[in-house]
Amino acid sequence: MSIIQISHLYHRFADGTQALDDVTLTFNEGEFTVIAGANGSGKTTLLRHINGLLFSESGTVAVCGKSVKGDPFAARQQVGMVFQDADSQIVGETVYDDVAFGPENLSLERQQINQRVNHALAAVDLSGFENKMPHHLSGGEKRRLAIAGVLAMAPRVLMMDEPFSNLDYPATCRVLEYIRNLHKNGHTIIITTHDLEKVIAHAQRLVIMVQGSVVEDGIPADVIDGIERYGIRPPCSVQLGQGIRPWVN
Amino acid sequence: MGELTAIGFRPGQSLLHRLDPRTKQALLMGLSVAGLWENLTFLVLCTVVMMLCVNDAGLHIRRLILEIRYFFFFLCLVFGVRAITFTGGWTPTLRADVAGEALTVCWRLLLVVIMGVLLMATTRTADIRAALVWYLKPIPLVDEKMAATMLGLVVRFLPVILFQGAEIADAQRARGIERRKNPLIRLMRFTIPLFRRVFISADELAAAMQARCYNEQRTFPELSFTWRDGLAIGVGILTSSTVLLP
């Protein structure tokens, strides 16, 4: 069942750059999709359209059958977005406050908010951090906090913009593990990255974007060959002729 | 990055931690106003109460003094302006009676700052915000929820801005900014990238808040006024009434 439908989407920035050029995509419920592309290929702009942070000049974006332009609030409830820079996403003065920010915006009862906060923090292994100040957390912990902040809104789709950027090896492994768990628990996952190495083995679908257009879309094993021509580094295992292999065991 | 930690919220179970934030804000305002009388009995009593509260809240006096060290420069300035007079030319003179008055003013200001630190250290910013909404609600033409959100964001982003400032300063020192003797040029080189980063961060923050459905009809923390609050207000009124003593 499709959950996000994008049809003939165009977006041009104020400086004249064509950020999205006739993008048509459909995302199915429970699917794990990786959108890859070089810097400036339009990945983040696409996510912002799905989340109702940008609106199209022409074309449509619909989440659960509802136009994002018509009801961005509903789209944001269904589609949670984790930004590339966790620091700018963290709004609360404490870990608890930050995770509670989304549910508070949904005007939920305090008891329900507390339940959601506890559940979201447990899901990313941050239980016990409630009273810590976010700017005292490590990079990996901040990224997990950003994920918890989105999870507390109980979205059906989780979009992550470059979730592994600026993370060290152990932090990357943990974030990857949480993403896999979220997918196993039924979330639809959309990840944008220019570094396929870490995540591609777990994805069911790979979309390649070049200069605002979708140039490839399919099963990773089918799309991965010759991916260098789009400015994307293929995973080491592919370069060694071993096909797509998990980055960590 | 850790510059503001001691005056940020510290979880605990002290009496101040358990008070309603509205009570704490009312006490802060009431005692600050009572301090305007500059009554010595009140100041001594208030200082004793504050020290007990600081101890009860688990704050360390040394750490507290360290955190507000820059405020002491301001107090020195206030003391100097009020106590030092120039009589018969350019010779500064310190008169004992005026110095006493200046010391009282500085003492009062210091107490207000300590009360503010105690409020910050024992109250979540979300609760301070909720209390602010409660106080501002009856005032016409004031959007109390917007004011509360702005307060929360200032508290949240002050450390980030300080961190960004320190990073820019380090990066410029690494490229020899100290060789520039003109302070105006140094200031310009520092402020322009800092403002650019702050504006970019503000833009990203607005997007992040929108993405998480920010709106003004939010759930605020529940506030409850208990017997402890009644007791604290009683103690506050008794302390304040000492300003009437000679």
| Total number of helices of chain B | 10
Largest interface, with counts of residues having CB < 8 Å to the other chain, equals:
A-B, 39 and 34 residues
Average of per-residue pLDDT values of chain B: 86
Low-confidence stretches of chain A: none
Largest sheet data of chain A:
6 strands, mixed
* Head-to-tail CA distance between termini of chain A: 31 Å
| Arrangement of strands in the largest sheet of chain A | 6-7-8-3-9-10
Beta strand % of chain B:
under 5%
Radius of gyration of chain B: 22 Å
Arrangement of strands in the largest sheet of chain B: 1-2
Q: Name the structural class of chain A.
A: alpha/beta
Tell me about the biggest sheet of chain B?
A: 2 strands, antiparallel
Task: Walk me through this protein's architecture.
The complex is a heterodimer of chains A (249) and B (246). With 249 residues, chain A is α/β, with parallel strands linked by helices. Chain A has a domain at 2-86 and 158-239: Rossmann fold. Helix content of chain A is 33%, strand content 25%. Chain A is built from 9 helices and 10 strands. Chain A has helices at residues 43-50, 72-78, 86-89, 95-105, 110-123, 139-151, 169-184, 220-223, 236-239, and strands at residues 2-12, 18-28, 32-37, 58-63, 66-67, 79-82, 157-161, 188-193, 205-210, 213-218. Chain A has a 6-stranded mixed β-sheet, sandwiched between helices. Chain A has a 4-stranded antiparallel β-sheet with strand order 2-1-4-5, with helices on one face. In chain A, β9 and β10 form a beta hairpin. In chain A, α6 (139-151) packs parallel to α7. The relative contact order of chain A is 0.17. The model of chain A has no long low-confidence stretch (mean pLDDT 90). In chain B, β1 and β2 (92-94) form a beta hairpin. In chain B, α7 crosses α8 and α8 (144-174) packs across α9. The mean pLDDT of chain B is 86. Helices cover 70% and strands 2% of the residues of chain B. Chain B has a two-stranded antiparallel sheet with strand order 1-2. Chain B has 2 domains: 1-124 and 221-246, no CATH class; 142-220, no CATH class. By secondary structure, chain B is an all-alpha fold. Chains A and B meet through α2, α3 and α4 of A and α8 and α9 of B.
